[in-house]
Amino acid sequence: MSARLMQGNEAVAEGALLAGVRFFGGYPITPSTEIAEGMAKLLPQVGGTFIQMEDEIASMGVVLGASLAGKKVLTASSGPGISLKQELIGYAAATEIPVVIVNVQRVGPSTGQPTAPSQGDVMQARWGTHGDHSIIVLSPWSVREAFDLAVRSVNYAERFRTPVILLMDEIVGHLRESVELPAESEIEIYPRRAPKKSRAEGYEPYAPDEDLVPNIANFGEGYHIHVTGLIHDETGFPSGSPKVTRESIKRMHEKISRAADEIIDVQEEFMDDAEFAVVAFGGTSRTAYEAVLSARKRGVKVGFVRLVTIFPFADKIISELAKKIRGLLVAELNYGQIVGEVERAAKGQCAVKLCAKYDMTIFEPEEIEAAIDEMISEVDGE
Predict the structure, then answer these.
(1) Alpha carbon 315 to its chain's center
(2) Across-strand partners of 76?
(3) Which of 96, 179, 215, 219 could cross-link to 161 by cystine, CB 3.0-4.6 Å?
(4) For residue 185, what are the contacts with CB-CB under 8 A and spacing of at least 6?
């Protein structure tokens, strides 16, 4: 297949379509609008449906309805729009509705700086909605990976019946690169789960399978289904039982935590001899990688660690790294969010330093390289 010049946002639309998404509901907002534009163009060509709703809350609601009716679904937004979606993201987690939400981050809070690069929605991605809930968050660093992770996000949403957040940033969303996309035959696509029991055999929509994920029938297929955001038992009807509440919340977490080793994806480079490492994700990873290359040319023994999966967090991987090196530098375009997760996972086994930027501009490699040198000086001075 010949290479194509594509934007990150365009690659997301292409990947979602190839993964089987046939319904998009959204509302335009920079810097994510190109995803909606791409889906508006592509979905009618394959018999899918695109709809622009009156706001972000309605766009989240309509994709959940389409998912319950059996469609693989996608919605996309940025900053303020993602904030508006949060109640229904929690509803999707509680009712176990497969849905992929793309967040092309911009500077916040509130309206912030539209179309300016930021990575300030990390904690919102994990804890934006209320209560204890599970979720999967992935973050690409290239146009091709935006395509690949869009496919993976749809597969995870379907496999685990959970909301999946594709945490982009303006850097990758608006980046253009020449990419060669795989054919549909080369891609593994996870189908919508189907009931294993008939109504006559005692089908219960929220009875978990061996992997703790329920096989809920789609609306309109002849099954009786009750869907509620209240804590419910395996019939789907609300329950006031402490036992049911405990088991329900625990299962929603464990269906993902059991598969964490498979879900968690971390790229490591130059770690064989590293005494220090830079941790980054998304668009900032590109700059961090260049900074590490430059530092190594000067003889600095520094490695590179990129978080492809943001949540579930790579606790075991970071903990093992922290045993072997003297310091971790966390580079992120925010006031300091993922650094707290790194500190928690490192468990005091090495120094953890923050390299933060939050002024509408991206990192220059020299800035991260200077922070590497500063971290080494601080550690050596201890």
Answers:
(1) 17
(2) 102
(3) 96
(4) none
